[in-house]
């Protein structure tokens, strides 16, 4: 909820006369140009009981917002201990600070506990089965794993696929065209986790890794 919305709700709770001047003083940025529309939207039947219930709801909202702020402050304190891993993960297309914190919370920063990137992906439940082996068809459903990590990475795919010119985005749409969006999401989440594993293990940002790879290819 933005500051403008919060102020308008408080006007309703306080039974403040809704004048153009009062609304103009309560909102910010582009909403100041929409005072007539806001005044019209707020004009209606609003009883004392409605004010009471809205006040109760707003108190609950404020309480949980304070709890969230407190937890985020505490989380940021922990993340300060992992500046480099956070920098590395945050450099991967689609991954932001929140996603980086979830990844660190779920898998840690010491990749020696997983022999390979494949082991990590398997542990996380992001390894689709083979379509066919020795003439026998098998299920392609992903295995059970870390539900928090899977959900986080699958949500990250939505951001990664929107980055134009990114190899990850190109990879997503290639798979989507052949196998559909659901399988493309799982495949890219799997790839993002493997990239995170490699970068954390090598102590390289995504950009440093890409540059190093290009230099090696050029020298060959």
UniProtKB/TrEMBL annotation:
<dbReference type="Pfam" id="PF02371">
    <property type="entry name" value="Transposase_20"/>
</dbReference>
<dbReference type="GO" id="GO:0003677">
    <property type="term" value="F:DNA binding"/>
</dbReference>
<feature type="domain" description="Transposase IS116/IS110/IS902 C-terminal">
    <location>
        <begin position="87"/>
        <end position="174"/>
    </location>
</feature>
<dbReference type="InterPro" id="IPR003346">
    <property type="entry name" value="Transposase_20"/>
</dbReference>
<protein>
    <submittedName>
        <fullName>Transposase IS116/IS110/IS902 family protein</fullName>
    </submittedName>
</protein>
<dbReference type="GO" id="GO:0004803">
    <property type="term" value="F:transposase activity"/>
</dbReference>
<dbReference type="GO" id="GO:0006313">
    <property type="term" value="P:DNA transposition"/>
</dbReference>
<dbReference type="InterPro" id="IPR047650">
    <property type="entry name" value="Transpos_IS110"/>
</dbReference>
